[in-house]
Amino acid sequence: MQPSIGRIVHYVSHGTPGGEYTQECRAAIITELTSDPNHPNQVGLAVLNPTGIHLNRAVPYNNGDGQPGHPSCPDAQSHGQPFRYCGCGWTEPTPVGGTWHWPERT
Question: Which domain of life does this protein belong to (predicted)?
Fold first, then answer.
């Protein structure tokens, strides 16, 4: 899908280092498309928070995918258990604060 002005997407909030506020998806509306050829999916957003609206320009896209890792990993059964990264290159799928992504279809 291509971003376009007026589309509703999810913005991932940063959260706070102390954990007072957690990283969460928020509804957002695309307000501008950037013309940066190195970042074609970078957009401007109006983020709709429960306590107000936050306007943010040049927000990068992140689909939240992790890395599958090497197929011959001896610890593949442990992926996703207590650790988020493995020597085989596997990383857990996770959203990144300060980015946007398409809403999941339900």
Answer: Bacteria
The DSSP annotation for 46-65 comes to EEEETTEEEEEEEEPB----
Match 């996770």 to its residue by tokens: 94
What would the pLDDT profile of 65-82 be if each residue is shown by its tens digit? 777 778 888 777 777 665
Contact between 26 and 2 (Cβ < 8 Å): no
- Checking 87-90 for CB contacts under 8 A at 24+ apart, the result is 90/66
Neighbours of 53 (CB within 10 A): 11
Where is 33: in which H helix or E strand? strand 25-33
Q: Could you tell me the pTM of the whole model?
A: 0.74
Cα 31 to chain centroid distance, Å, stands at 18
